[in-house]
Design goal:
With 301 residues, the protein is of the alpha/beta class. 44% of the residues lie in helices and 12% in strands. The radius of gyration is 24 Å and the shape is elongated. The chain binds cobalamin.
């Protein structure tokens, strides 16, 4: 079948879906105060992007007993509440949204941080022992170690150890780094500078896991290591970043409870600019108390 024929059929179906509920009372989404099902973008286009914020609050419950309560529930969370059903199946809009979110999550895990982006941002690159994405995903242990060359390079680069070292890593979400970078890194580095804290040039760790920060910290010899890494994506949030900070990182001595986590950094959670301020304050606390993780919490009590 010709492409044009297929497009004509798709457009006819989309028109049908979009033109369905003319009476607002007959449209459960409108009744719950949530946006109605997406309309076709036009004769030459398909559906609007179902990842748009307006479709996150979709309600498909027919004749809700308490529309106000339902509206509040839906407003309170990004979880897929009250999407409705058509017989035993989910309705088309939430089903397509699920597929869209799922592919976005898969995409961000498998995507590589482009070399051009690293060059543009003048980031020095170090490598974990996971040589490619497949190895990274199937061998978490290799993501926690650095190649010998990278360790040697770090030792050479930081012969005079900085007080603080910032490391960026793709982790489980490349988009988390690409999307949040410009709003988190400059304010973080400026904040450290303004606080009179000597920070080394940030480096990028490809295919990194959290524990690799111990290896890098030891090689650099810094007092505090701040790792900004892509979080495992969820079905609704694929651009979230975490900060795992540690005082005096050491491969042999560091335990998980020594790490302090600032999670959920993205525009819909803790905005990256705000997170930068939180991290600067955290670093100050770590340097003052000479501790991180649970030891820091105890020292602050
Ligand atoms: C996956 C996950 C886990 C997995 C980690 C397994 C794994 N190998 O991936 C499991 C189920 C084991 C886990 C356990 C815990 N987790 Co958890 N976890 C997550 C999650 C969903 C994603 C983390 C991620 O993407 N990391 C990035 C990838 C690249 O890291 P990784 O190297 O592959 O894996 C390491 C990290 O995930 C790290 N890690 C995971 N959770 C935590 C929690 C703490 C406090 C620390 C220090 C490290 C840590 O441990 C892994 C091994 O080194 C986040 C939610 C989020 N939005 O970030 C919560 C999250 C980080 N976890 C949290 C908590 C509280 C815990 C536990 C303390 C729960 C408990 N009471 O036992 C434990 C502590 C585990 C630890 N390492 O010390 C909180 C941290 C809150 C905070 N700010 O302190 C988060 C933010 C969830 C939440 N919203 O409450 N977790």
């Amino acid at each position: 079948m010709e492409n044009l024929d297929i497009q004509a059929i798709v457009n006819a179906v989309l028109k049908e879906i979009g033109g369905g509920a003319k009476d607002p009372a007959a449209c459960p989404a409108a009744a719950a105060g949530a946006p109605a099902a997406p309309k076709p973008a036009g004769d030459d286009g398909g559906l609007e992007d179902l990842g748009l914020p307006k479709f996150k609050r979709y309600s498909g419950v027919k004749d809700p007993k308490k529309p106000d309560v339902l509206k509040e529930f839906i407003k309170a969370t990004g979880a897929r509440l009250g999407v409705g059903r058509v017989g035993p199946r989910p309705p088309t809009t939430p089903y397509l949204r699920f597929l869209a979110d799922h592919s976005r999550s898969k995409g961000t895990v498998f995507k590589e941080v482009p070399d051009e982006w690293l060059a543009k941002n003048k980031l020095k690159v170090v490598h974990s022992q996971a040589g490619d994405k497949d190895t990274y995903l199937t061998r978490p242990d290799l993501g926690r170690k650095l190649t010998e060359e990278s360790v040697a390079e770090l030792k050479k680069m930081y012969q005079t150890p900085p007080k603080v070292q910032v490391v960026l890593s793709d982790g489980l979400s490349t988009d988390a780094l690409l999307v949040n970078y410009e709003e988190i890194l400059p304010p973080l580095m400026n904040g450290l500078k303004n606080a009179g804290i000597n920070a080394g040039e940030p480096v990028f760790l490809r295919h990194g896991r959290v524990k690799a920060e111990d290896v890098i910290g030891e090689a650099v010899g810094c007092e505090v290591l701040v790792l900004l890494i892509g979080e495992r994506p969820g079905l609704g949030q694929s651009e979230s970043m975490s900060c795992y900070a540690i005082y005096k990182p050491s491969v042999a001595k560091t335990v998980e409870s020594d790490r302090t986590v600032v999670s959920n950094i993205h525009s819909g959670g803790t905005p990256p600019v705000e997170a930068a301020a939180v991290i600067v304050d955290l670093v100050k606390q770590m340097l003052a108390k000479k501790a991180s993780g649970i030891a820091l919490t105890q020292a602050q009590a």
